[in-house]
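Summary of Year 1 activities. Much of the first year was spent building the evaluation harness for sequence design. The harness presents a backbone, in tokenized form, and records the residue chosen at every position. We chose the following record to illustrate the format because it has been used consistently in internal testing since the harness was completed.
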């Protein structure tokens, strides 16, 4: 890590050009109703704070409706409310709160919330609005998912908590992690993994543990997380600089990592970050297409949902007031690029992700290929030798 060097207050954020978006857009037909109910949920469990009012106007329910465009409406509603709860934590507790600069105290606070998620019966945080919202969400996850999916959801919350405590350490020290560490941290503190169990619930199926554990499926999910978080870093850069006064002058995204550790200008950092996400996007589509051609309907639906998640993040990112900041408009694109800026088949120069390009680790078993037309189960994936 290295000491944080703040840019002058007058430094403008660079313009973000159109991003490569090969996945078609889609939205749930009930998106307006879902968004209205998520806004009401924000006001109920956000205790009527200025933050909850602000979040209620950011089309978070529409974001969820884009992730599950043909899914069950009640699960899309659950997803919208859950994403809003994550923003109540991220904005109110971490970014704009004192705990965001105190990793030990933040870890303790998040551990109490995790205990509520695992044990909603516990007499703990009974007067806390965040805990009340989490109890509501946990009850609905248990209602719409299996015991296994509930356990995955709670475990993903624990991964998220660990990563945001890690980031709080950097915020307290005023430091910027290098690209290797930032990538590992961002794949979890972007709260993408906590959404994955709801992709299954939204369409009423459950992947087997063998399927989820297979390197090819893990790689696809991790690539989706990478694209989503890199896109979020690009589209939220103006907002983060604009709100630096509310967050103690500290903000962290891939652009800051690239300028701090790679000596790039802000414009060069945008170009490099886009090239990274484009190369992953091209490979993500390649891997998903290969998997889908050899898999059963459930796994194909999961891969399709990963793609919808990626595209939903883009569509919401360029349209939500959260990032467009109408009072001081961000220089965000209004269209998408039809071609990637980098389509090379070589791995990124990030050691933690290079295995995504290893064909031996991503191969499917012969039995999976033989069973690709089974209607009652997704492909059975074998771990590589």
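For this record, the design step produced the sequence shown next.
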């Amino acid at each position: 890590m290295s000491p944080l060097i703040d840019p002058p207050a007058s430094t403008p954020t660079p313009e973000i050009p159109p991003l490569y978006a090969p996945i078609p857009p889609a939205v749930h037909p009930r998106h307006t109703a879902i968004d209205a109910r998520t806004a009401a949920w924000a006001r109920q469990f956000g205790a009527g704070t200025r933050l909850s009012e602000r979040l209620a106007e950011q089309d978070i329910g529409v974001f969820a409706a884009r992730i599950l465009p043909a899914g069950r409406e009640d699960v899309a509603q659950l997803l919208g409310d859950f994403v809003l709860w994550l923003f109540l934590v991220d904005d109110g507790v971490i970014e704009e709160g004192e705990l965001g600069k105190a990793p030990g105290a933040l870890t303790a606070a998040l551990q109490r919330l995790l205990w509520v998620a695992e044990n909603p019966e516990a007499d703990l945080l009974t007067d806390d609005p965040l805990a009340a919202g989490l109890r509501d969400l946990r009850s609905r996850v248990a209602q719409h998912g299996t015991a296994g999916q509930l356990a995955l959801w709670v475990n993903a919350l624990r991964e998220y908590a660990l990563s945001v405590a890690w980031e709080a350490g950097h915020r307290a020290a005023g430091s910027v992690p290098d690209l290797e560490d930032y990538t590992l941290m961002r794949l979890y503190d972007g709260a993408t993994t906590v959404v994955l169990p709801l992709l299954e619930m939204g369409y009423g199926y459950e992947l087997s543990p063998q399927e989820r554990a297979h390197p090819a499926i893990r790689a696809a999910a991790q690539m989706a997380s990478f694209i989503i978080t890199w896109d979020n870093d690009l589209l939220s850069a103006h907002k983060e600089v604009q709100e630096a006064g509310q967050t103690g002058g500290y903000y962290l995204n891939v652009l800051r990592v690239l300028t701090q550790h790679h000596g790039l200008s802000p414009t060069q950092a945008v170009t490099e970050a886009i090239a990274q996400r484009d190369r992953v996007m091209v490979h993500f589509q390649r891997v998903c297409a290969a998997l889908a051609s050899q898999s059963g309907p459930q796994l194909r639906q999961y891969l399709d949902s990963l793609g919808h998640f990626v595209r939903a993040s883009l569509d919401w990112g360029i349209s939500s007031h959260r990032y467009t900041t109408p009072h001081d408009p961000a220089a965000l694109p209004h269209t998408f690029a039809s071609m990637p800026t980098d389509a090379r088949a070589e791995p990124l120069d990030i050691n933690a992700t290079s295995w995504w390009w290893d064909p031996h680790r991503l191969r499917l078993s012969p039995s999976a290929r033989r069973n690709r037309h089974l209607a009652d189960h997704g492909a059975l994936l074998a771990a590589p030798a």
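The CA atoms of residues 177 and 263 lie 14 Å apart. Quantitative recovery figures across the full test set are reported in Table 2.
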